[in-house]
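User: Round two. Same drill as before: sequence, then structure, for each protein.

Assistant: Same drill it is. First protein:
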Amino acid sequence: MQTAWRRAASAVALLVGLVALLGASAPIASAQTLPPQEPGVTQRIFQLAAQPQEICPIKPASTPNVDVLKPNVNWSTNADFGGLSDNFLVHVIANINVPTAGSYTFRLNSDDGSELLIDNKLVVDHDGLHGASDKDGAVDLTAGVHSLRINYIEAGGDNILKLSWRKPGDSAFEIVPNSVLTTDSGVIRVTAPGNKQCEGQNDSPGDGLPLDSVNPAYNLVSLRPAGFEPKVTGLEWMGDDLLVLTWGDEDGSPSTMTALGEVWKLSGVKTATNPSAITRVKLAENLKEPMGIKVVDGEIYVSEKNRLVKLTSPNAQGLFTARQQIATWPFDDNFHEFAFGLLYKDGYFYANLSVSINLGGATTNPQGSVDRGTQIKINKDTGAVEHIAGGLRTPHGIGWGPNDSIWTTDNQGAWLPANKLIHVQPGKFYGHYTTGPDGKPGRFDNQKPAPAAVLIPQNEIGNSPSQPMLIPSGTFAGQFWVPDVTYGGIQRAFVEKVGGEYQGAYFRMTQGLESGITHIALQDDGSIIVGGLHGGGNWGQNGKLSYGLQKLVPNGTTTFDMQKMELVDGGFKITYTKPVSDATLTDLKTKYQVKSWGYAPTSNYGGPKIGEKTLTVSDATVSADKKEVTLKIAGLEPNKVVYVRSPRPFAAADGTDLLSTEAWYTLNTLPGYVAPPSDGFFELEDGTFAGGAKVDTEHAGFTGNGFVSGIQTKGTSSVKIEANMAKAGDYRMALHYANGPNPFQGPKKLTLIVNGTSKTITLPSTGTWKTWGYFLDTVTLNAGVNTVELLYGANDDGNVNLDNIRFAPAGTTRYEAEAGTLAGGANAQTEHAGYSGLGYVGGYQNAGASATVKVNALADGAADLTIGYANGPNPFTGNKRLSAYVNGVFQKKVTFTDSGSWKTYKTITDKLTLKAGVNDVMFKYDTGDEGNINLDYVDVKQNEPIQCGTVSANDDFEGAALDKCRWTTVLNEDTSGYSLSGGKLNIKALSGDITGGTVSAKNVILQPAPTNGSWAITSKVSIDGSKEYTQAGLVAYAGNNAWAKVVVMRRPNGVWTTELGRQSGYANVDLPTGAQKAITLQMYARDGQLRGRFSLNDGQSWTEIGDGFDTSGLGSPSVGLAAYNGTGSETATFESFTVGAPPELPPVPPCETLYTPESGYSMLLDGSDAMLADKWKYSGPGKFVREGCTFKSVGGFGLMYTKSPYKAPYSLKLDWMMPGDDNSGVFVGFPDKGADTVNTSINDGEEIQIDPTDNPAQTTGAIYLKQQADFAARDAALKPAGQWNSYELVVRADRITVFLNGVKINDWVDPDKALGNGHIGLQMHGAGDDVYFRNVRVKNLEESVSEDTTIGGSVPATLGLQIDAPSTTWTFTPNVDKTYEATTTARVTSTAGDAKLTVSPEEAFLTNGSYSLSEPLQVGFSKTAWTGPVSLDPVTVTFKQHIGATQPLRTGAYRKTLTFTLSTTNP
């Protein structure tokens, strides 16, 4: 069965970048209108910021954190919930196929609250916070398909959700099986990180929620005449007529492009009050997914996916039948590569090119084409294309702004944590990094990203903004209308120039339209034409139509709205469209809520909010006309979004409620703001690049969002940062870098430039690219901003990866206690002379007194302290203690010896463990202390990062601390969660997992694996506990979705098992009681396989775990140890860790008797490994393993397919067997698309299904989703699970006939006739779907008739072939090198659907008795194939014979009889 995309006439391709989700009351399709289905349920999980108390509706258009297909609802571990543990909301969406009518009782078992809805009616209400418990509900159901929905919250403790049923006549409950559950297939599942929000109790449309109706200032008019359903991708006026451009993508597959776009001319739009007054004429068709249209000098131009064309050659009906190509641009057939536009001015067009992305939304890396994600300028006359600016992702909208400036919108995704409205300026880079097909960064990527004028927070106020339109007049003149496809409606953007650049605010404007909006057009009377679409899945507004064309007509109403929001000194001035009421003005400052946050761009889809905080409105003043309110707001910072909300009631003087109470202002520049000095730490990926330097995330172990690679161009590659330091002086610099083996192994030089002063530095080798080290140096920095650059200079070696750089004061730094933060009665004093600085800290008379200083450390580790103090005689003479805390965590009691008097100052030395960066070091009079000292200063000697030499990979865990030179990466480190003692590594099994798309397990301890792809890692493990799914063992890690594990794990039934797992599947072997307390685990990689085994006798004998997995996707991983998914009370111990050569693969006895084909057939799988390797290849993570003479599917979802294509007609025979309820299929008629064939075969070929318990069009014998089998014939012939069945598939260009065990069960006609030539494939459906194949063979069924003649002949009437005599008879001349030529004419008559002309033998030699020429006769045709009937169609046949000068020639005639054959596969 297929779990990816499918070509279907009724489906729609999806633009990934955004997602539309079912809301709490969203309609679910009825059985009569179900889209294509696949078995299972959709699980969507939304992480919440706080503990939910009850099931809540998620805010509309929110993108989930997890969106996956699950087989059923039987979940009880963090892994079952995408690795999340607490505070989340789950939506389960499915359809249930009820076998018989009757009363069904459903049971929800959940911890915490849950509810079940069938056909949108509540059946089980099990809401609230509670432990795992059951709740039942009964409902009468008819036989057939019903919609099913579960809502569930997890607030803490266990996370459990299970759905069971008791069918009519049953005595017990059972988990609702996969066989009756389906969900929409072909859905691109897009996720985004960060917390999501439920609708609040005080939220209402326009006040915490999107508007839900048309703006009161407008009336809505439909512009769609009957039968007109345009998916609008462009609107343009042509005089008084409206041109409507439509998308035309109707095949539902992102891996294919369609050419079905159209241009329509609508007349009567400007005056229409209903669609009956509008007439339409089609102007163009067969356009390739067009996204822009423009009329210039009466001619129509359209931007297709790969080119700009002008429509030409209109026929009598007005249809333009030809295209003049104006320009082309880089294009690689990716479904997301659009050309959004168009604008035109002064001889130039402007458009935006979106980037290539993968299914799921991740940016394709590398891109298939150069210069994607750029804005282009096209010369109308020459077609020359200029790339204006870059760093765009999905720049859907383009429009004019003030003073003919160009503005564009971009949609959230990789490197875009929010949507954007951008003022595009030539040469600028707007933040979305790409890597070209040559491995080089995008042409604009080598500079600091320019900010968006307006950030549009995802799901809060936008999701897929489209065409910005400058408002020409009226209350909002100079602002923009910005429609949105997925959030829907139209929003409004106010912009102002601050510091020479635009920034501004975003407001709601209208909803209530029939579709999500892609384009708008303005009418002279102020009306707004709105056109839209719903592309399915994640590109369209939920619950709306897939097409739309309407008009918003002004009706003279003035709404009460925020007209604009301007930055003023100390805050903002909000101007309203009406005077504010006196009631609202009372206690005005309390009527506003303000927050601010920044964003952290990452290579993942979307990005988290950072630094979110609530701000205080200290004052609010109103203007005399009561239309302007000025807010004084403390704590504003640049490069933040400032969110202002004035919840209702908030009314105008005339009683009108505020239309929308919220505004989002993008505060890029804040005049007068003085940035605080940095803590000395700088992520280099946030710097400015040159010469090919780029952001990368390939190698684990970096900090922040990535590292800088591409330092490969001598003289130009560099990264530059600005370091704002509080004080001038000498600083120690720690540069975190990796220096791997390319282009050579060894030290490499770079140039370090600090404030214009250069020096050469040498970075020692780190051995591999996944091993990170520190380079230390001392630099002199100024107070304020310093420029620091790392350059691949003319005499350098370059070719290193650079992660971060940290500066901390060199040597010993004094921190005066009186300058710190004092609390609990501690205070600065000067009574007793002899102190350092401006005084000392006294007041340590009462418990709770404290002094805190901020200490900047260069690295993690112990630092030497010298503390100046006085300890006089009060209240007693003797030693006294204070407690030392670092970053709020107690470290030790510090003893201060007697100094004799308060005027005598002494010092003590000690050590504290600091973290790299700024540390809060506090000395506190705590419980058990004596206090009563005067604290003068703290001197801190700068610690430095560990410098690593060459270390062994093996570890016996002797010592007191983990060797960070060996273990270079600790994922999600919690230093309290692991330790070394007694020669063992101890790791607490804390909550978290490595599954679910994000590794949440704590303390996954890793080192680089050998780079040759052949290795074994081994460790002896011990763990125990009662928490189900607690795990401990070996891990290989190459990224969040690229990992493998060999672990011991506790099952829910209490049995401990071993598990070999990858993200694509798993295999288990259960253990004897207590074996998990002393078990040796081994993971090994060799020959492209990843395998696991265990030993219970210290390696004397081994047991394999499953059949292994393909290593694809792991690359050169990091490997190591982990314990996770526990409660924290379980501790795994590891006695040692070794890295070595892998063992030999387990032997598989050879097939004793190979299969042999019957007459006419050729073997494809005869039971031998040799034939498997010779004739087949793989796409996807799964594989087939041989067991005797049969081959078993194992691993993840993939396809094994023939290296050679096969031309129809042919007969394919094979045997298959399923041990149980398993799943697979046979694919035919698809092209080889390399690594992506596993997906493209689903779209471009056909699958003959193997699965006896699925839906009719998805079960054994079905042509998947096309035609079900003859059930009666199929069921009579089908042998049960565990027994072998045989397929014969007769494949013709337009037909597949299926025979099961000799019985015809299906005969499907392909209307596309697309099966003529393609590969044959056997599917691996995933872990647990174990299907066996054997004895695969194929036979060509080509039909033909022929007759021999001496260059001539005849055939029966249905296939006629006439051949004239050659035009000349050759006379060969000895000793002369010459090629002799002759021609004749053949005439073809055929009544067949296709025909082919061939000649045999392929190599023909002219003979004269026993003498033969040494070179063959060459025969050529002017035409060899026909696709329809022909009569006496002439074909020129050319004969050539080369005679060399040394060719011996015998007197007489040389002749050869040739056979010309006219054949057909479709008589």
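Second protein:
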Amino acid sequence: MPTTTDSRLVLKENEPRRHPSTAKMVQLGRRTNVQALLLFFVTVILAVLFTLSSTSSLWTSTQFPSAPLKQTPDFFSKQQILSRCATLHHIPTPPPTFHAREESDRFEQGTNATLIRNALIFTGRDNGTEVIKGDLLLDKGIVKGIGKISRRVIDNTPNLTVVDANGAWVTPGLVDLHTHLGVLSAPILAGAIDLNSAKGPILPWLRSIDGLNTHDDSYELAMAGGVTSAQVLPGSTNAIGGQAFVIKLRKTKDRAPSSMVIEPPAGLHITSKNGKNFEAAPHWRHMKQACGENLRPYGNRMDHMWSLRSAYTEAMKIKLSQDEYCAKAESGLWDSLVGPFPEDPKWEMLVDVLRGKVKISTHCYEAVDLDATIRLSNEFQFSIASFHHASEAWLVPDVLKRMWGGIPSVAIFATNHRFKREAYRGSEFAGRVLADAGIPVIMKTDHPVINSRYLIHEAQKAHYFGLSPNTSLASVTSTPAAAAGLSHRIGLLAEGTDADVVLWDSHPLRLGATPIKVWIDGILQIPVPSKTGENGHVEVGKGKDGDEWRQVPSTPNWDKERKEAIEWDGLPPLEGRKSQGVVVFTNVKSVWARNDNGELGQRYPEGSQSTSGKLASVVVTEGEIVCIGVCSENLVNEATYIDLEGGSISPGLMSYGSPLGLEEIASEPSTTDGSTYDAFKQHIPPILDDVGGVVRAVDALQFGTRDALMAYRAGVSLATSALARPIYLAGPDAHIISGLSTTFRTGSSHAMQEGAIVQDVASLHIVMGKPYFASKGVSVSTQIAALRRLLYGWVSEEKETGLWFKRAAEGVIPLVIEVDSLDIMASLLILKTEVEYNIGSKMKMVFSGAAESHLLAKEISDADVGVILNPSRPFPMVWDQRRILPGPPLTNDTTLITLLDYDIAVGLGVRTAAEAQNTRFDFQWAALEANGRISREKAYALVTTNLEKLLGVRSVGGQSGDLVVYHGGDIFDFSSKVVGVVSPSISGSESAKSFHEDMIKITDRLPTEEEYRRVRHLLLQHTQEAVSDEELARVLSLCPHLETVTLSGIEETTDRTVVVLAENAINLLGINLSNCTHVTDVGILELTAKSLPLQWIQLNGVVGITDPSISAIAKSCSRLIELELCDLPLLTPVAVRDVWSFSRKLRTLRLANNTLLNDRAFPSPILSDSLSLRKDEKPLPHRPVTWLEQLPPLILRHTAENLRVLDLSYCKITDEAIEGIVMHAPRIQTFILSGCSLLTDKALESISKLHGHLDVLMLAHVSNITDRAVVKLARSCTNLRCVDVAFCRNLTDLSVFELAALPSLRRLSLVRVHKLTDIGIFAIAEQATAVERLHLSYCDSISLDAIHLLLRKLERLQHLTATGVPAFRRAGIQRFSEQIPSTNYDSDQQAAFCVFNGENIGRLRRFLDKEDKRRREAEERNVPFKMRSDDKLDLY
């Protein structure tokens, strides 16, 4: 769009511009004489005002309407005009004595001098090749000495602080030439966004300093990365966005933006610390131009270039007018001057551009825009200092050399490309290609696109891809300083330059290099001085003490790839050459691989070999490693040999968090999935028939995208991608319900290629956070309220939304939540607890993003929630992320370390698809920041196994995982590069084997390899050796014919083992997981989902399972005949009701010790009297009820006639439940009700209806029953074989009379039946002659004579307990008892212990017979009887 101008300001050709005020005077002069008199006074006043204001260089056309009036020279100061004209041709250059200055204009009084001793100093001079070993003296804000500094100078420097560098590297402070620091402040808030103006395409009069926010959190973070100076640019939506300024990042004493500017240009009216007026200084000015896509609001490329040409034409007119004006003045033609000095504040910046006084930074990507801009520069004869972004500059270096005034610098990203069409041909080799062409290369961040703190990382990556070390370091120091016209004071270290210095913990180009100290203007900025006075020491560089850390890192050779990139015009083929034969890799330094459970491990070298340095050969056949070391010649016949030269082979990495594989170019809708429907903002179309509009990322996969293939070539063989984008990145397009992620192979060609899609559904994703800073959004409270309803099952399972949120609530799939805020994460943890408690589940919740998770680490750990740090290095982009833990050199800990210290499962992610190729750098950097607290294995797991577990990705272990081949080092070495990927032969099938082999049963050990296919029954209850869950899962995956499995002896068994068993043992009939406390609903639900022919399941003590698992068992296992569910604290009546409703073939049901079970868990009696009150009964007072009690009665239309064994021990049931059970299960044979303390005689009356079916009845601790009910029971259930009425305090001998009369009675327990006397014992002795086990402990009213009679009558008795019976304390009796337990028994208990078994019962009987005989003999002789205990035991 062309810029419009006021027609009154347009000058005719050769017409001088006149002062606006003269127009009014001429008009007044044409009127009356009176007016002429007034004119005289007005003229005088205006002349005085003009003289007073002539020191200012700006007169705007808007102040005075234009109408020229000729004036005489008497009204002007000739000297001022000549002085002003003389400055027009001054090009900003530092004075010759600049480096001889004694003090910096930025010096802060009270700053100590600093001497850095024993350093390796990169000066930045000689194109970055000069390195000096020696000292560096900083004083009064400048460098006073470098290299060898005389002792006299040091001694004469007062207040000197000495820092010993110990041979570490020192560089100039880094210079970031492209940032938006302060104008797009962190955290971004709507009130501080001063990046772009919407007032038009041409805005040279705007100044970024007018929007510079001094409270931007980014300043300190950037300094922590060694950045000391930065150019603050306006945005790029305008062809000319305004004036830019180069600032120092430290906060000054007056805390004003003006004091941060380096060499303020004329017109800012800034005075230096020493009182010097910067107006007179010839300083460079800076301006931002742009072209290309970003200017679309103002038209297309043709419009943009016309608006620039129109603006420069207007500026050229003013420039010519100024030149004409000054030519007349300098020639002494004062009478011919008309008006004041011609200028316009709107165009004065462009006039200075035409005069060569402005360093222009031009945002341009493509060749078409670069060419057009260079033509513009030649048309108007002005120079451009630097092109920024310039993704295609490396393809047209000769075009750049045609720039008017000299070759521009090019400021680029190292690897951040392809995010829009303009950047599609960007290359990681661009830096090297440009440098080879003689074009100055600058690395920049475009902060906050990349955090300015990581400017040095851009240089590191540029070096990795071929840029020389000196050029790489110069690209962030001296080269950007020169492009800004400030290389005389920043970006270099020499005597007289600014004292901006960085002391590094390693060579700056080594990955993870961190500043130990940073000085700006000689003032220490890093470490940050404590504001509280406390010792805030931050440890930096631990583990980097070796000499190798101070050496320039070696890098791979990329000549072949670079040449191909140029030949293919920036788009070289990325698909590699495939080989299916035998490949032999020689000179291999190390081999990492996954075991069958997917865990990482180093296969070579092992043990003592790990330090030998011996290189091996690795043979790969059909995608699998078949030999490491010295291999048979038969394996290597006709093989392809590849020399890795000290390289390695290791598992491929996984990328998560970006739209990798879901788009080709992010900003081009036609290359993406498009927009999905947001249930929170619009109605979902009826055709979807789903309230939440849940979509699957697998349906949107695009294979062969350049970002995916670039990641694949960088060792990232797997990616899990979702349509979830955080609010701060997606803005209004962020969806709270973001659908289901998918896992795929990045190197596959299409979705139908075998193995391309590893898992079609991995996790369910939602996005939560505060609204986007530039618009209103859905409130956090609304987001959580919706999530609560969805997890509680508000939506039917028949819909996609209901189905997947139910599975997430039950823990079947992970629920991955994009969230950064501490407060929101806390709310989600509370919600998780609520959901798990209410529905009895164990959710798999994962926080992604999680910038503030370190503040909640303990709670996250307690809740068993995983975390994916995304991005891996935090930045407070928005309010939700403001409380980051930045790590060294600002803090000792990082978020990653804090989370790992609490044993939280952590993974690392990336935000953009282009970043996926840098995954190997991300996890290495994370480990280096940890100062040695993370091992290589743990670091590797962050982007492999940890991510897989957190995202629910299965089937990546064993031989199914990809292996990446590195040349020249391992994955941790900067010198290595990927040269191949070993993929398994997925299409291979297992040869057919006989299914009629002899089957075996294995007990208390794992089967051997030969037994894998033969084992049918595996019983692991008392294993001699410890068995890990990993090993167990591996073995079970290889045993396809298992029918019964007992794992109760392997307490470490987890869901993984259960899932593996479910997937492989297709004929499984029974499983016992009792006491496997690590098993959860996930494993049980997988069992039920596989339609296995299960007939018995034992889950006693598996405390993590809940109602959904049990309900699923009842509904899906139609053949089930035995179900044991004892000791499950989370089991409620809801699931047990499903068991009664669906498991009709059940013969055994054990529910002991489930304290939440009440009457509502069991069938309700029909027409029960308990449902109504009798007339003489009064209603009970109101009391609070729980949701369990509010369940409606369970009315069954069928009976459970197959049920034979029912164990309800210690359940909170009443007589009503017993009545309903007996009514619906009339053939119960074993009824266990021990501890059901609420039961009364009425329950026994109901049980009596079982009649002859009942043979075992356990009523221990049912203390409310009386003789009346027991009598009725004994007379009705005449086939009772076992009765336990222990602790039934109301029973007397009457109950014993009836029980003793049972003809089939074999076991009777009367423990603590205190009312039992010898009469009852006599009844047992006379009638219950078939009893085999009798328990009489603590029946303190019985005598030894009664017991003697009992022993003589009960010839089948095999077990007798009489602990605590006073009569048994007689001397000589206890020696026949079993051995007293050695633990948990005090002396009184040991004295009372009396338990007799087997032969000891016969011995006791014979002893008592002998003692009875001795007593009678004593009575006959009328002598006192004395009990004996000293006779030999073998006599009996």
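The CA atoms of residues 1293 and 1319 lie 7 Å apart.

User: Perfect.
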